[in-house]
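User: Reviewer 2 asked us to show a designed sequence for the structure in our supplementary figure. I'm pasting the structure tokens here. Could you produce the per-position amino acids so we can include them in the response letter?
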């Protein structure tokens, strides 16, 4: 898949491992995330945007949670959108899935009551610009739901390699060299505040070996290894063997009944 200027990780996003990853991430995270959506107090027939909807995992869950709402999913990857259409067939009459660029959304100002972006800002250049576009298409008094990642907050024990070094020298460096920012999560509050948003609230979703089934956590990490190991080795000073060794060390901690891992 050719790299889009606004999607420098297009090849990794299109890999089959990402389909596995998105499914496992939703399984691990949705139980903690659902209460946030429930407290927004949306009208029954609200209009909801899911930016970077991928394979539609969260579109499906939003359809089930808001049974009369219109849900619009946007993504650049046509194969992901096709898979999303198959999975959202049960609510076809109130679901739209659109190919579109997060930096220039094809919607009028104030078009949505709730705009959602998840697992995305760390993978694109200029996350603040994407957030500004989301603010534009969300009505005054509406809600913006951002699930932002920060790869400086991942820890595992016991491990036989320095996984802190791996994250710095591997994925974080890979992102920098591809024009993205794996530590964007800590910056989102500032971005939103500077965009003039008020009533900002920060909640933490913790995916770890206590709150998520180890098997599900394992699937997330295995998919990341399968989709990103070669790219990390190619773009950084780590060898492919070092990248694999680090992933296997983290996976061993996840699988160890006495081990601990946190994302």
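Assistant: Here is a per-position design you can include in the supplement:
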């Amino acid at each position: 898949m050719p790299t889009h200027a606004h999607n420098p990780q297009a090849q990794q996003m299109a890999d089959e491992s990402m389909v596995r990853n998105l499914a496992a991430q939703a399984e691990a995270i949705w139980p903690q995330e659902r209460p946030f959506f429930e407290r927004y107090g949306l009208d029954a027939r609200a209009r909801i945007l899911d930016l970077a909807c991928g394979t539609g995992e969260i579109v499906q869950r939003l359809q089930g949670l808001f049974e009369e709402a219109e849900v619009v999913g946007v993504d650049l990857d046509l194969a992901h959108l096709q898979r999303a259409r198959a999975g959202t067939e049960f609510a076809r009459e109130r679901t739209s899935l659109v190919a579109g660029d997060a930096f220039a959304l094809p919607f009028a100002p104030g078009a949505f009551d709730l705009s959602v972006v998840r697992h995305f800002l760390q993978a694109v250049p200029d996350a603040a610009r994407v957030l500004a576009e989301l603010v534009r298409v969300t009505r005054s008094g509406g809600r913006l739901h951002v699930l932002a990642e920060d790869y400086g907050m991942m820890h595992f024990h016991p491990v036989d390699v320095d996984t802190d070094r791996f994250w710095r020298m591997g994925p974080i460096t890979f992102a920098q060299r591809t024009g993205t920012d794996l530590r964007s999560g800590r910056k989102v509050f500032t971005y939103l505040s500077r965009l003039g948003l008020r009533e900002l609230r920060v909640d933490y979703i913790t995916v770890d070996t206590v709150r998520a089934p180890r098997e599900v956590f394992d699937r997330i990490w295995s998919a990341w290894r399968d989709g990103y190991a070669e790219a990390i080795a190619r773009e950084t000073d780590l060898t492919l063997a070092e990248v694999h060794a680090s992933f296997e060390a983290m996976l061993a901690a996840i699988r160890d009944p006495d081990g601990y891992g946190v994302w």
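For the response letter, you might also mention the following. Residues 163 and 235 are 18 Å apart (CA to CA). The chain has a mean pLDDT of 94.
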